[in-house]
Amino acid sequence: MTVRWGAVLALMVLLGGCATVTARLTPAPRPSALARAYPDQVWGVRNGQLIMADGTRFPISQGGPTKTTEQALDQADILDMFAEPYRRGPQRNPPKGDPGRARYEPLFLKMYGDCSTRAFQAHMRKVAWMPKSAQGGTVNVTTVNGVDRALEAVVTDLEKLPPEMARYLAPTAGAFNCRVVAGTSRRSMHAYGAAIDISTVWADYWLWKGGEDAVWANRIPPEIVAVFERHGFIWGGRWRHFDTMHFEYRPELLPRRRP
Ligand SMILES: [Zn+2]
User: Fold this and answer.
1) Is the peptide bond before 171 cis (omega within 30 degrees of 0)?
2) How far is the CA of 137 from the centre of ligand 1 (A)?
3) Residue 16 CB burial class (10 angstroms; 0-12, 13-18, ≥19)
4) Ligand 1 mean position to 245 CA, how many Å?
């Protein structure tokens, strides 16, 4: 073998290795993930715009000067929603950011509707909450984007966990609630019927623990978090502004795992 062919072979081995490594890393979600997450509503991304199934267009980025963290929440555009990667797995250390707290409100209003209108109620449905292990009654969630079916799949899997897990889950603090995020004018995901709070008894919430100075804490077992994430719900325990009882349907932030 000549030196040149040796070099080519070495390069091929190196590139092959890189390709394997790249394939193993799950790419961070981007705005195009919205089409995969909400296939009934979002067509895709083209020319810097998110195009909805009915032709409505939203800008991906509203540009302007660099935003502070608070501005990124209050005036979030679609790009801001993907700025902080949401990572699964046991949350051992306090989170540095708030992945998923930035929401482009016009998109969510377009998909789920305005809870102050009568038309909104037509999309709501009651789902049994932990009926076998805790007789947890029902929770009111939206049928839009299949949130009701996703929550039913969560319940089915939660019921398979060891019985001692039920105390974290019931009584639930509720799902649909036509309200804004505490202390802000932003709509909560509860206002769309796309979020649920599990029991408050084991919850740690930054506003109950001193506000901005609150030290992150969590008592919710990772097994419970993993079930919700498997079905498209992100967890408020991964936020610096933590809310460990809170789960909301945000499948765009949960990249599909390799089979
Ligand atoms: Zn909540």
Assistant:
1) yes
2) 18
3) exposed
4) 7
Name the residue with tokens 């909104």. Answer: 120
Q: Which of these, 77, 97, 64, 103, lies nearest to 191 by C-alpha position?
A: 103
CA of 205 to the centre of ligand 1 (A): 10
Residues 51 and 59 sit within 8 Å (Cβ to Cβ) = no
Name every residue whose Cβ is closer than 8 Å to that of residue 159 and which is 6 or more positions away in sequence. 130, 132, 133
How far is the centre of ligand 1, averaged over its atoms, from the C-alpha of 39 (Å)?
25
Residues 69-106: pLDDT tens digits? 677 777 899 999 999 999 999 999 999 999 999 999 99
Q: Where are the domains of the chain?
A: 29-253
In this prediction, residue 237 carries a pLDDT of 98
Place of tokens 């919205």: 34
What's the gap in Å between 199 CA and the centre of ligand 1? 11
Give the Å distance between the CA of 9 and the centre of ligand 1: 55
Closest C-alpha to 233, from 167, 165, 157, 163: 157
pLDDT in tens, 215-259: 999 999 999 999 999 999 999 999 999 999 999 999 999 976 554
The edge-to-edge listing of strands for the beta sheet with 246-249 is: 195-197, 246-249, 233-235
